[in-house]
Specification:
Porin; about 10% helix; 2 helices; about 60% strand; 10 strands; single chain
């Protein structure tokens, strides 16, 4: 009787032992990993920060003072005129280095000649020195109009004297030419730049008489040299944070 009881107890205990062997073991808890802190970006150079913060307009306007020296025939001799005036320039930038320019100039002070020009050309700025000074080169075609008055000698007097007779001559001249120049820009503020330029122009002029005895329709080549200094306005706008690629 006892043997039967032992056998029954063994049969009942066997399934419990097998189920106990199949129970999954729980892994020991792991310690939480420390949070990863984002690395702070390195500070940007001042020039890069300004370039990302501001964007320059493609157009600019400039007003400048100009000194013009021209050499023209006045009867049998050549005369040199030096006059002072001013000019206006419009500039539209296609790329960082190339832009189109339109100029209108007039010279009228301290000279018997009045000169006006209309010019169309291109400007090339190859680089920026020390992030400030920006040299440039200009090439333009121009239409020039000029008016002058002077005293002309017509030769010996009628009564056989040794002197000549002089009379006032007034004329205007016009023609097409080309000009080249070089200069630089220096920033005064974010929007204003100081400009300097030296240029030379060669034009094929035709003279028309207004008074006096000189023949009309005389054609000749005229050289002109100019120095200009002015102020250039190039507007800028502030970029929003969603427009800044380095925000």
């Amino acid at each position: 009787m006892r043997s039967r009881a032992v056998i029954v107890l063994a049969l009942l205990a066997a399934p419990v032992g097998l189920s106990a062997q199949t129970l999954p073991t729980r892994a020991p808890p792991r310690s939480a990993a420390p949070p990863v802190r984002p690395t702070e970006p390195s500070p940007q150079p001042a020039a890069v920060a300004r370039a990302l913060q501001y964007r320059r307009a493609r157009w600019s306007a400039e007003t400048y003072s100009v000194i013009t020296t021209t050499q023209v025939p006045t009867g049998p001799v050549l005369s040199r005129y030096t006059s002072f005036g001013n000019g206006l320039r419009g500039d539209y930038r296609y790329t960082d280095h190339w832009s189109m320019t339109v100029d209108m100039t007039t010279s009228y002070l301290f000279s018997p000649a009045i000169t006006e020009t209309g010019e169309l050309g291109a400007r090339y700025a190859p680089l920026t020195l020390d992030h400030q000074v920006r040299p440039f080169f200009d090439a333009r075609v121009a239409f020039m109009h000029m008016y002058d008055s002077y005293q002309s000698d017509i030769g010996p007097t009628i009564n056989g004297g040794f002197g000549g007779d002089y009379f006032a001559v007034g004329r205007y001249m016009r023609g097409f030419g080309s000009a080249v120049g070089a200069g630089f820009e220096f920033p005064l503020t974010e929007s204003l730049q100081l400009t300097n330029e030296v240029s030379g122009m060669r034009s094929r002029m035709t003279a028309y008489r207004l008074s006096g005895g000189l023949p009309t329709g005389t054609a000749y080549w005229m050289n002109a040299f100019r120095y200009s200094i002015g102020i250039k306005l190039n507007p800028i706008r502030t970029m929003h944070l969603d427009q800044n690629p380095m925000k």
